[in-house]
């Protein structure tokens, strides 16, 4: 009897243990959310289509406005935060579509984040997705807006810049006509006409050059270019203006240094820097242009150094903007168009390089173009000489 009693107690304990184990498993096992019968899940076909779209996508529940699906781009554009649409203007569009089922399009500009002034421009299309969801498609138009603003500003600036010489030519022509009986006055005004015509020609030429740079890829049909020959040609073209202003140009370049690109564009860039240095230097000073090979960086630097008036620190960040002039009055006197340095920046960028400036008022300026070097004579680094000196020695 005692044995049977013990056996019965053991079986009872085992049964209780099994029951408790099953109960604990049921309690500890995570619960799967039960789909709301009033809000069916998106079917696999719809999900696959949404995943293939290039637009940022957001699917919102009509019942409670909760975001049930969103692409990474939607979060990157800050359309969605957590499980909610982040902006009231987008929520209003969703509510309107949920109400009447009509597809709506809108262009919106939204903050990039909860802080800061950055914005993102989006083209939205909001459409019903069945009876229980609303689909939001967002296309980023920020870059297109930026390009359009640049184009619009460029057209406005060009129009303004062209008005000055064209208006001056018209006025001078009328003055010459009225002074037909005064040979001295006619010669004086004819000289002014020639000056304005030259300025207008230079402006049109640089506008065309800048427009060409924006559509031509300098490296698409790149050729080996001897940089020493580029500097020699640029100096020859700039020498006439320099002689007229009694300014000497010194040339020092590593022989045989080769870069890949467009020879004519490189000559234009260096010549623009030389013309700029000459225009802003005083008579009796010198302008120097030379190269430095930075073998360890795979770069060659072209530096144009002048002893001119220098550039204020606050003006330097804007030097390479189109039509920007530090001293508009002096630019008019020297015939500057305000496009030369912008062209230099485009040429350097298109060749895989950059351009920088060092300047202090009263100490002159140094403009440096850096370009990837394709070939340097001599395999031994000791064979490569550095024809330029450091900034302190140059000064």
UniProtKB/TrEMBL annotation:
Its main location: membrane. Residues 157-375 form the Histidine kinase domain. Its EC number is 2.7.13.3. It catalyses: ATP + protein L-histidine = ADP + protein N-phospho-L-histidine. The keyword Nucleotide-binding applies. Keywords: ATP-binding, Cell membrane, Kinase, Membrane, Nucleotide-binding, Phosphoprotein, Transferase, Two-component regulatory system. It is an enzyme of class 2 (transferase). One of its GO terms (molecular function) is phosphoprotein phosphatase activity. InterPro entries: BphY/WalK/GraS-like (IPR050351), HATPase_C_sf (IPR036890), HATPase_dom (IPR003594), His_kinase_dom (IPR005467), HisK_dim/P_dom (IPR003661), HisK_dim/P_sf (IPR036097), Sig_transdc_His_kin-like_C (IPR004358). SUPFAM superfamilies: ATPase domain of HSP90 chaperone/DNA topoisomerase II/histidine kinase (SSF55874), Homodimeric domain of signal transducing histidine kinase (SSF47384). It is found in: Cell membrane. Residues 373-395 are annotated as: Disordered. GO terms for cellular component: plasma membrane. One of its GO terms (biological process) is cellular response to phosphate starvation. This is Sensor-like histidine kinase SenX3. The lineage of its organism: Bacteria, Bacillati, Actinomycetota, Actinomycetes, Micrococcales.
């Amino acid at each position: 009897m005692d044995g049977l009693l013990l056996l019965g107690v053991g079986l009872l304990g085992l049964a209780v243990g099994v029951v408790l184990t099953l109960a604990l498993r049921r309690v500890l096992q995570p619960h799967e959310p039960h789909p709301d019968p009033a809000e069916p899940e998106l079917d696999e076909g719809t999900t696959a289509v949404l995943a293939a779209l290039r637009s940022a996508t957001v699917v919102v529940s009509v019942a409670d406005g909760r975001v049930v699906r969103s692409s990474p781009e939607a979060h990157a554009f800050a359309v969605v935060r957590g499980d909610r649409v982040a902006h009231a203007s987008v929520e209003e569009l969703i509510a309107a579509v949920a109400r009447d089922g009509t597809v709506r399009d809108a262009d919106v500009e939204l903050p990039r984040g909860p802080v800061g002034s950055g914005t993102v421009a989006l083209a939205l299309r909001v459409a019903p997705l069945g009876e229980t969801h609303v689909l939001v498609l967002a296309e980023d138009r920020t870059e297109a807006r930026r390009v359009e603003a640049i184009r619009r500003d460029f057209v406005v600036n060009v129009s303004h810049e062209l008005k000055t010489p064209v208006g001056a030519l018209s006025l001078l022509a009328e003055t010459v006509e009225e002074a037909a009986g005064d040979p001295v006055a006619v010669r004086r005004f004819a000289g002014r006409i020639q000056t304005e015509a030259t300025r207008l020609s230079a402006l049109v030429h640089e506008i065309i050059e800048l427009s060409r740079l924006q559509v031509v890829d300098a490296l698409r049909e790149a050729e080996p270019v001897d940089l020493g020959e580029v500097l020699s040609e640029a100096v020859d073209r700039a020498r006439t203006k320099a002689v007229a202003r009694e300014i000497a140009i010194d040339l020092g370049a590593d022989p045989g240094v080769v870069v890949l690109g467009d020879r004519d564009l490189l000559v234009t860039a260096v010549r623009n820097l030389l013309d700029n240095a000459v225009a802003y230097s005083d008579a009796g000073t010198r302008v120097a242009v030379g190269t430095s090979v930075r073998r360890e960086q795979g770069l060659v630097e072209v530096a144009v150094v002048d002893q001119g008036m220098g550039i204020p620190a606050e003006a330097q960040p804007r030097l390479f903007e189109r039509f920007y002039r530090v001293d508009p009055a002096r630019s008019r006197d020297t015939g500057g168009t305000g496009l030369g340095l912008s062209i230099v920046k485009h040429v350097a960028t298109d060749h895989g390089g950059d351009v920088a400036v060092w300047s202090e008022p009263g100490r002159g300026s140094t403009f440096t173009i850096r370009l990837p070097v394709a070939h340097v004579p001599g395999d031994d680094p000791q064979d490569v000489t550095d024809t330029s000196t450091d900034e302190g020695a140059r000064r």
